[in-house]
Design a protein that fits this description.
Number of helices: 9
Number of strands: 7
Shape: globular
Distance between the termini: 34 Å
Radius of gyration: 18 Å
Oligomer: single chain
CATH topology: Rossmann fold
Order of helices and strands: HHHEEHHEHHEHEEHE
Structural class: alpha/beta
Strand content: 5-15%
Length: 236
């Protein structure tokens, strides 16, 4: 009920920018100036989406050349700083679920500028049941719902589960993040759709070290899915 009331409040004021309260595009709920100021990930590694130098002709970063991730391609259209941070934080920590629509609209607008591969299904990174009960929603699921509608790609919420309650990644270093996410996910083998999947896209809000997506992709590859891409709103 609380989330529904928030949604109605937003619908009433949706002609105003979420970030600066100026007159806004009603579809995105951001004003033209705030949209133009979003930190675009202009040139990025095709495998992990980490920003590359603007004067390089390389498409793959040094890390992925030496130690590639198990997933096949990544797309992350924004950098995790400036005005992207409050948008993600308000959705994730302040229960402003209507921002999921804004982020999905921004994401799909950038995605449709490239020749992207359309997957068989979208799989949002799941929360552990204890975290879901605490928060009351999964922000990545909310974003995925809108991306699915925009691109007409089905969602599979039953394919992947988080089997252990991992701690927040924010305060951990790279090695600790890797250990934290080890064996965190499980593929539900009783899901009858697995045999129909050749290409899956994992969705999360932010990619930092890539360990969360790597852990999930590892289990999906083990289940027999050949191609796994990752889509995230922002790259840290």
């Amino acid at each position: 009920m609380k989330h529904f009331i928030q949604f109605l409040q937003h619908q009433i004021s949706s002609s105003h920018c979420i970030l600066c309260n100026k007159e806004a595009d009603i579809e995105i709920s951001l004003c033209p100036q705030c949209i133009n100021n979003l930190p675009i990930n202009q040139q990025a590694c095709i495998y992990c989406a980490i920003p590359l130098s603007s004067n390089t002709k390389q498409l793959i970063c040094g890390h992925c050349q030496k130690n590639p991730f198990i997933f096949d391609q990544s797309f992350s259209p924004f950098l995790y700083h400036d005005s992207i941070i409050p948008l993600i934080h308000q959705l994730k920590y302040q229960e402003k679920l209507y921002i999921a629509r804004t982020l999905a609209k921004l994401f799909t607008h950038q995605l449709q500028k490239i020749n992207f591969r359309k997957p068989d299904a979208l799989v949002p990174i799941p929360l552990h049941t204890s975290k879901y009960k605490q928060r009351g929603y999964n922000q990545t699921q909310e974003i995925t719902n809108f991306i699915s509608k925009e691109l007409h790609i089905p969602i599979d919420n039953q394919l992947l589960v988080r089997k252990k309650p991992t701690i927040s990644q924010q305060s951990l270093n790279a090695k600790q993040r890797q250990n934290n996410m080890k064996d965190a996910f499980e593929v539900k083998q009783e899901n009858n759709m697995i045999k129909n999947y050749h290409h899956i896209t994992l969705i999360d809000d932010v990619m930092t070290t890539g360990n969360t997506l790597q852990s999930a992709a590892k289990q999906l590859k083990k289940s027999g899915i050949s191609v796994i891409d990752t889509w995230t709103i922002a790259r840290a």
